[in-house]
Amino acid sequence: EAIASWNDYKLVIKLRLAIYIIKNYFKKRNINIITNDFYIKKISNIRLVNNNSYQRQSNKKSYVQGRYILSYLDFLIKNTSNNEKNLLTFIKKFYIKRQFSQVTTQTFINDLNEYTNKNFNSFFKKFVYEI
Question: Nearest Cα to 114, choosing from 90, 96, 131?
C-alpha cells in the first residue's frame, strides 16, 4: 500500500509539473491557446510500451514522454468538457474510489471513460500499448 500511495503521489506531482511547464512555455511566448497540434507534434512518435517498468533504472526519455502523454490527456479531458473536468480531479476521485482494491490499466481506462463520458480506449491503445 505504501508503494502504491507513493507512486500515486509521484504521478500527481509529475502531472502538476508538466502542466506548470506547459503553461509557462506559452506564457513566455505570449501564446494563449494550447492547440491539439501542439501535443500531436510532441507525442506523435511516443510509445510507452517499450519502457520496461521492471528495470532498476529507467532512461530519462520515459519520464519526459510520460509527462507529455499525461499533459495531452489532461488537455483532451478539459477540451471535451469545456474546462469543467481535468485529469488531476479524476486521479483524486480514482484514488478515493479504488484505494483499497486491486486495479489494472483497464480499470483506470474504464473509470476515465465513465468520468469523461468519452472513450479513451484508442488513446491508450495508440500511446501506451502499441509499439
Answer: 90
